[in-house]
Amino acid sequence: MVGTLINVATVVVGSGAGMLVGSRLPERIRQTVLHGLGLMTLVIGMSMALQTQNPLRMLAALLLGGVIGEWLGLEERLHALGRWLETRVSGSSGEGSAFVKGFVTASLVFCVGPMTILGSIQDGLTGDYTLLAIKATLDGFASLAFSASLGLGVMFAALTVLIYQGALTLGAGLVKALLTEMMITEMTAVGGAMILGIGLLLLDIKRVRVASFLPGLLIAPILVALTPTINAFLIRLGIPLTP
């Protein structure tokens, strides 16, 4: 858990520094910083998404994940958590508030990606938190930039990091036994597509219900595991489509 605790600390410290800096910056500069983050988020998401070995498999994971996520109301639940936290902190809340936007956006950015999965597994199995320490440094700078524009909600995304990465670290043995390199690759690609949605949100282009696609991260490795069975079925039909 050492790596996760370091990550939580960097998010808190980075967010605190960002709020101190952000309050002194004119609105136009904060918007420019936010749009710069949006552009960089698109670049990162695209680089992750292009790692897929099978676009059809990634599409299936996203679509199935989106349907399940909407059925479970994940987007609403995450926003509700943000509103609940804001109420406890400031006594007021709103669906479109900067607090909720900061919490939801930062939570997704900090928890979707290969370094989260691999770093947590490595920390849990061997106690080596090097990868998470690197991620923590990146998240610290990202939280500084996010909080300068989105405020206190970014700091509370540290709770999401603690719960999500902590669970992965504690369950590392089980996760390591289940995931192959190909599964992690496809999970990374699906996560990249989700991060693209976050980039569109930061650029005020389109509000994508990114949290609804979270089940796709679980569906992607399942589809990889089922690929041999799917291939065998398609070959019988004379249409081998899945490499």
Which short descriptors sum up this protein?
0% strand, globular, 243 residues, mainly alpha
Structural class: mainly alpha
The total of beta strands comes to 0
For the sheet with most strands, the description reads: none
Which radius of gyration do the C-alpha atoms yield?
19 Å
Average pLDDT over all residues: 82
Quickly count the domains.
Answer: 1
Number of helices: 11
Q: Any overview of this molecule?
A:
This protein is an all-alpha fold and 243 residues long. It has one domain. Helices cover 81% and strands 0% of the residues. It is built from eleven helices and no strands. The chain has helices spanning 2-22, 27-49, 55-72, 74-90, 98-111, 114-126, 130-150, 153-170, 172-178, 181-202, 216-237. The longest helix is centred in the N-terminal third of the chain and has 23 residues, at 27-49. It is globular. It starts with a helix and ends in a 6-residue tail after the last helix. The mean pLDDT is 82.
